[in-house]
Amino acid sequence: MAQLWGGRFTKETDQLVYNFNASIGFDKRLIDQDIEGSIAHATMLAKQKIITEEEKDAIVFGLKGILEAVKSGNLQIDENEYEDIHSFVEANLIENIGDAGKKLHTGRSRNDQVALDMRLYTRMRVQETDALLKELLKAILEIMENNLETYMPGFTHLQKAQPVTLAHHFGAYFEMFKRDRLRMKDIFERMNYCPLGAGALAGTTYPLDRDYTAELLGFYGPTDNSMDSVSDRDYLIEFLSALSTIMMHLSRFSEEIIIWNSNEYRFVELDDSYSTGSSIMPQKKNPDIAELVRGKTGRVYGALMSLLTTMKGIPLAYNKDMQEDKEVVFDAMDTVKDCLVLFTGMIQTMGFHSDRMAVSAMNGFTNATDAADYLVGKGVPFRDAHGIIGRLVLYCIEKNTSIDALSLEELKEISNKFEEDIFEAVSLKTCVEKRLTTGGPGPEAMKKTIERCKAYLNSENE
């Protein structure tokens, strides 16, 4: 069992204790970051004359060789032999280059080493998540552009409320995922500082140049407090919170797609490649991807609550509890990545039944508010108009019909203010087109919104 400690101990660690303590089973995915950070550390040590240039060159050559051997499959990470990824790298380095490898850990603790590795890895995953969100936004925007006049019911309380367009409905999700990208940028800005050089908790007596190390690794600068450097997991909690919000948005979207895919609605047709069948009912075509995205939301929420609970009672500085950050965070990162990729593919291949949507909007009295506004335009006080249209809706329900299907004579029996122009006033096209305020579903308003969305996605600084 290769360990980076042991001089203080006179007995071997019990195997069960060793296994319980070991993290290599999950932190082996940090090998790229561990070697990247070690190369930067060795480069800084040589610059500061703490090790020689020759020793630095040997260390860098050895580290790159280890990474190449692992990537090619020529070197296996033995989970039974090594406690963590750090001991794997250092043990193999010493074996490959000799005593120079023993100098790599000068001025460094595993505490600031793992803090660096996790920060580098998380920074990469934040950027990856941002890129996946951008691809999803592109897919949503394309649907918006193609459906400016695809009329459908808008809902409140899952009851048909007012007519909107598919472009407008999808535009709401564009705004949600746009905010998710802003959260990625906020997290990056706060976390992009380098903890390496903090040591175990109190820095080191070696003349390290932490600014130089931070620069080599693409950070804005070094962290300001060595105790906070090794005990900070705020950036992980923030990332998990942002990932939970992404999943909440995906879950809401999935819920609607599941409803729209039902026989009762038939608004959408899911592509066969994103659906499954039933083992017993041959007619079934199930929206499994949408359902799994909805289900996996709880898994990501659980990761956030797990880490919050782990961190709530930990005194300064580092404690072994913090090792519990990795498995839940890795799982949440992977889950959200898979969900974003699959969800984007699902909506890109999804078909829409515009005729069904339009019929649904008409049959749900979504034009009732516009009928009331029509009466207001004829001089009827709005509260009176509201009551008149309420009676009109009740009449339609009793006759199993819709407002636009009534004759003018029937309408005049409810109110003599109705004229022939009522039919144009309550048509879906008119109801939607009249809503021209910024953010509304009218085509002219939506065209401006789409141009803003395009400008946002095309901006180099978005």
What does this structure look like?
With 462 residues, this protein is mainly alpha-helical. It folds into 3 domains: 15-106, Fumarase C, Chain B, domain 1 (Orthogonal Bundle), CATH 1.10.275; 111-149 and 163-208 and 221-358, Up-down Bundle (Fumarase C, Chain A, domain 2), CATH 1.20.200.10; 363-458, Ribonucleotide Reductase Protein R1, domain 1 (Orthogonal Bundle), CATH 1.10.40. It has 19 helices and 4 strands. Strands 1-2 form a two-stranded antiparallel sheet. The protein has a two-stranded antiparallel ribbon with strand order 3-4.
What is the global morphology?
A: elongated
Question: How many structural domains in the coordinates?
Answer: 3
β-sheet strand percentage: under 5%
Total strands: 4
Which tags fit this structure?
elongated, mainly alpha, 4 strands, two-stranded antiparallel sheet, 61% helix, 462 residues, Ribonucleotide Reductase Protein R1, domain 1, 19 helices, Fumarase C, Chain B, domain 1, Fumarase C, Chain A, domain 2, single chain, 4% strand, two-stranded antiparallel ribbon
